[in-house]
Design a protein that fits this description.
Elements: E1 4-12, H1 17-26, E2 34-40, E3 43-47, E4 51-54, H2 56-63, E5 68-75, H3 79-89, H4 105-117, H5 123-133, H6 142-160, E6 163-164, H7 196-206, H8 211-226, H9 236-249, H10 253-272, H11 280-294, H12 300-313, H13 320-324, H14 327-335, H15 345-361, H16 369-389, H17 397-413, H18 415-423, H19 426-433, H20 443-452
Antiparallel strand pairs: 1-2, 1-5, 2-3, 3-4, 4-6
InterPro entries: ARM-like (IPR011989), PPPDE_dom (IPR008580), PPPDE_sf (IPR042266)
Family: Belongs to the DeSI family.
Keywords: Hydrolase, Protease
Length: about 450
């Protein structure tokens, strides 16, 4: 059989917090809390509540691009033989047999790597648990590390229904495919760790809070970290919006950052617990500030926060109509994500979610529809052309998938957009892009989009 590429995908479960805080908390610096999976035969194999097999793009959809991709080599092991090997070892890699020190996801990856290519994964990944737990403070963090691993497995299982290793697969088996009908999900920004801990400490400095106002903020922070809506009080919303406006009014980078953090959560609360009516007199000055932000040179964290606010603002029932009035401005800002010298992967992922949401939800009755249609089709053409001209889509597959899917959903309902797509050269762009998606589960979606044009 043809040699199969074998790669180790390395994820940081702490999402950067380990690099920032490990020295002060542990007395030693670590770059991340590592989870690994082995990519081969078009699937990513990992240990999480059992041995799982998931298309790499789906893992990336939940956890972003891998922190590192380590090329392990190539293998001539047949996929059926590999599946038989996994069946033999699966009793040692179950939820009950997990051990942070000796039987974790990285130990599984190491065993797989040895079977496929005859070599270990990087030693520093295998040694990390022992190094951390040997520090005076490390033992205190053991439950947290184990919980991170467990939540990752549970999240992937709930979102993507990964395939457990139960029987040998066919030698011609392919990763699950998708169609345009697969993209009904609305994307919102709901990660609890996105700067929530930095908000509460700054609010008192911006405005002296009464006991009732402090309670309102505490209810919002509880929702942000737990997703529990039961403590939310509808009457709090007016105070939250006024506090956001007050933070923007301070006109300092720190206050603006706080305002964006707070607004993202306020909008998310409306999405999760709709029914709040917000006075437009409170909302208008906040949107004016957001419009000003789109014309400002923003650093990476500010830009990601603004993208997350726009993502939620167009979905929150109380704000979506007012946010939609400025869709042209938002789109110009979003497409600008790809115009800098070095595009952050996190920014590009957020921007691609925004594009997909807008393409799916926009209707010809939308104000300035012709302009929006042109901005969407033209922007998709430019960004996809960049990816078609680059190498493999290994680290950008999810971004490309969302833009292709969004474009397809727009073309599906708008004949005029199809003509425009042909005029801007999207047939040529997608034809060049298509070979790069052969092993990806949205390859057929790209074919659907080409057929529409």
């Amino acid at each position: 059989m043809t040699d199969q590429r074998v790669a180790l995908h390395v994820y940081d479960l702490s999402r950067g917090l380990a690099r920032q805080m490990s020295a002060s908390l542990l007395g030693m610096h670590i770059d991340g809390v590592w989870h690994t999976g082995v990519c081969v035969y078009g699937l990513e194999y990992f240990y999480g509540g059992g041995i799982q097999a998931v298309p790499p793009a789906q893992v990336a959809e939940t956890y972003g691009t891998p922190y590192q991709v380590v090329e392990l080599g190539t293998t001539q092991v047949d996929q059926a033989d590999f599946t038989s090997f996994l069946q033999e070892i699966q009793s040692r890699f179950t939820a009950a047999t997990y051990n942070l020190l000796s039987n974790n996801c990285n130990n599984f990856s190491n065993e797989v790597a040895n079977f496929l290519v005859g070599s270990n994964i990087p030693q520093h990944i295998l040694d990390l648990p022992q190094q951390v737990l040997s520090t005076p403070m490390g033992a205190m963090f053991r439950p947290m590390f184990e919980d991170m691993q467990g939540r990752m497995a549970e999240s992937i299982q709930s979102h993507h229904n990964p395939s457990p290793i139960a029987a040998p697969v066919s030698r011609t088996a392919l990763p699950p495919t998708k169609t345009l009908a697969s993209y009904a999900q609305t994307y919102i920004s709901c990660l609890p760790e996105l700067h929530v801990e930095r908000i509460a400490g700054r609010l008192d400095a911006l405005k002296a809070l009464s006991p009732d106002e402090t309670s309102a903020i505490q209810r919002l922070m509880h929702f942000a970290t737990s997703k529990d809506t039961t403590q939310l009080v509808p009457s709090d919303s007016a105070f939250w919006w006024s506090l956001v406006a007050n933070a923007f009014g301070a006109q300092t980078p720190a206050a603006t950052f706080t305002a964006l953090c707070l607004l993202r959560i306020v909008l998310l609360a409306d999405i999760r617990s709709p029914g709040v009516v917000v006075d437009t007199m409170l909302m208008s000055p906040v949107i004016d500030q957001l419009l000003q932000q789109t014309q400002t040179t923003l650093d990476g964290p500010h830009r990601i926060l603004l993208l997350s606010v726009l993502l939620n603002g167009l979905e929150a029932p109380a704000s979506k109509a007012q946010f939609a009035e400025h869709l042209g401005v938002w789109l110009a800002f979003v497409w600008g994500t790809w115009q800098g010298p070095a595009t952050s992967h996190s920014q590009a992922e957020m921007a691609a979610c925004f594009v997909l949401n807008v393409c799916r939800d926009i209707r010809p009755s939308t104000a300035d529809y012709d302009m929006i249609q042109f901005a969407l089709v033209g922007g998709c053409a430019e960004v996809l052309d960049v990816h078609a001209s680059q190498g493999a889509l290994e680290t950008t597959a999810t971004i490309v998938e969302r833009i292709v899917a969004g474009l397809g959903l727009l073309l599906q309902k708008d004949v005029g957009a199809r003509s425009l797509a042909a005029e801007v050269g999207l047939v040529h762009v997608l034809t060049r892009l298509r070979p790069k998606t052969t092993a990806l589960d949205f390859h057929s979606v790209l074919g659907e989009v080409l057929a529409l044009i």
